[in-house]
Amino acid sequence: MEQNQEIKLKAIRLTFWIGTLLMGVKFIAFGLTGSMAILTDALESIINVGAGAFAWFSLKLSMKPRDKEHPYGHGKIEYISAGFEGGLIIMAAMYILYEAAMSFIHPRDIRQLDTGILLTAAAGLVNYFLGSSLVKTGKKHHSPTLVADGKHLLTDTWSSLGLIVGLGLVYFTKLNWLDGVISVALGIGIVITGIGLLKSSLSGLMDEADEEKLEQIAKVLEENRRKEWIDMHNVRMLKYGSLIHVDAHLTLPWYYSLEQAHEQVSALEELVADKFHAEVELFIHADPCIASSCSICQLAECHQRKQPTKTRIAWTSKELLANQKHGI
Questions:
Q1: Would the pLDDT of 163 be above 90?
Q2: How far is the CA of 257 from the CAs of 226, 286, 305, 313, in angstroms?
Q3: Of 65, 82, 228, 229, which has the fewest Cβ atoms less than 10 A away?
Q4: How far apart are CA 158 and CA 127, in angstroms?
């Protein structure tokens, strides 16, 4: 777990310092060219650096151990970080659109576009590799903050690509008004990115179900299912940053002793812990079987059976979410 945390911190530190360097490069490019479109790119970099600093802080906070006031840990701060970044991006985009509109009223002189294009291309290339690495690391270590930062940088890369194409048109056609048009297009794209990050943040804070992860958990349970595990239902999932908390009801033979039931519950929890490591914590409520459970029970040597086995219900995410015991 500590190694996982250190990897995430290392990634966010690298993002912050590289982002600061790229911001300087973009402002140099603006100073050389006077291009409003390049200024747009540079202004967004300020947001990258500010969001990176907040992400750094939120990751460190999310890694604090549980305490009396936060029994589930501090992981929710990662969703707040993603939402904060989305809000900053939208505010930056509003300012960019304003400046772009003003550039039509008061056109700017544009110069040394060839140098500006080269600097923008270099910054975009760095952003692409950094963003791809962040998204990959964030998904592997289940960090919404890293994924949000990575997607932002990838969007910044495509913005840079569009910017390069647009600046190329300005360079060859000498139509300086295109610079303002490019800036408007980039501003609209940045707004869309910000809205996406805000939606992702709200989904996490509102505990929206992670269907992909639930399917993975269901597959592991189904493939390693014991015959004593008659039924599982009422599965509920909560995400706290990189930690996923799962509650579930497990139906066991009614005549099992407390010790036997505990052994089966522990085996199920250990299975999930082994497959998902520290990412998923599973809390099981043991239920006794009832007469209707016999129709789906696979325990052949049961001497308390009320009716024969009729079918086997596969543990899919849909079946696990059911809010009642299964049976026929």
A1: no
A2: 17, 12, 17, 25
A3: 65
A4: 10
Nearest to residue 214, comparing CAs of 319, 317, 323, 321?
317
Domain range for 228:
211-321
DSSP 8-state symbol, 295: G
pLDDT digit string, tens, across residues 203-219: 766 666 677 788 888 99
Domain-located, residue 327: no
> Which one, of 185, 167, 184, lies nearest residue 176 by Cα?
167
Residues 144, 82 contacting (CB under 8 angstroms): yes
The answer to whether residue 167 is domain-embedded is yes
Calpha distance 81→147 (Å, rounded): 11
User: What is the rounded average pLDDT of the residues 163-175?
Assistant: 83
Tokens at 83, concatenated: 């939402």
Give yes or no for residue 2 having a pLDDT over 60. no
Measure the CA–CA gap between 57 and 78, rounded to whole angstroms.
10
- Asked if residue 328 belongs to a domain, the reply is no
Residues in the chain: 328
